[in-house]
Amino acid sequence: xxxxxxxxxxxxxxxxxxxxxxxxxxxxxxxxxxxxxxxxxxxxxxxxxxxxxxxxxxxxxxxxxxxxxxxxxxxxxxxxxxxxxxxxxxxxxxxxxxxxxxxxxxxxxxxxxxxxxxxxxxxxxxxxxxxxxxxxxxxxxxxxxxxxxxxxxxxxxxxxxxxxxxxxxxxxxxxxxxxxxxxxxxxxxxxxxxxxxxxxxxxxxxxxxxxxxxxxxxxxxxxxxxxxxxxxxxxxxxxxxxxxxxxxxxxxxxxxxxxxxxxxxxxxxxxxxxxxxxxxxxxxxxxxxxxxxxxxxxxxxxxxxxxxxxxxxxxxxxxxxxxxxxxxxxxxxxxxxxxxxxxxxxxxxx
Length: 350
Prior knowledge:
Helix content is about 55%, strand content about 0%. It is mainly α. The protein has a single domain (about 25-165, about 175-305), classed as P1 Nuclease (Orthogonal Bundle). The model is unreliable at about 1-30 and about 305-320 (pLDDT under 50).
């Protein structure tokens, strides 16, 4: 396959590259393993006065991956996983955006799927978790808390805070999966997490915007690291040398962002509990209901591969596009070879 791709003229690669650019940003996130690690660590990180929540939160860890699995049946789900401030005017102060989603989108002049709504999703889940704790609806509190774990972790992933989410605008296609999934799975371990002290958030929305702003500020360094790592690997991104160099350059960023995810998630859970009046925390549930806290849709299983996090129908659509394009390319090559063979057998006319 590598030989085939290298032998193709650039114009033959234009169509598949264009199709890859059009794939939506909502199909990616931290890998499921990191979401579970973050939720588990955040449960252990809550303040001592909330210590009963440490056991209560354990069955919330695995369901923190559910939001990725709701995408298959809920078209609105994707936009809840990212926020792209670089779509706003240069110098735009994120603190001026309204905590009311509709008002903020009107100010920005953008649609939900263009800008992404992760900050408003996080504050909505926080409010719902608080209300559920206050009314002693602990199943709903746990479900909202698990979803909150997912969305807040996504906002700490730099490539969830830029329109150049896959390096597609800088000819670095595939960076998203290479960095947040392949590299992290190879080099990151949960014992590297260094969470800070959980604190009460006086203004959760401003805190969330601060997290998004910081994540966005890391994007240039991440893009630069990918270029350097690729150059050090002789132009190849599918080699051990590339991934080791990328980890050398950005490993600290990974640890810092995942650790911050833990700190901030435990702060969100603590804030919900305090705002609810610090009610007694019950024994943990055996398991949580898997349906969406937004629309009630069920979950679809993930399919491993380059489209990690993609709903199955998107993965199938992606495969169909790629195989169709490759089929046309193969037919073109075969047809060209046959035509040259026929022409070579024709006698020269003087």
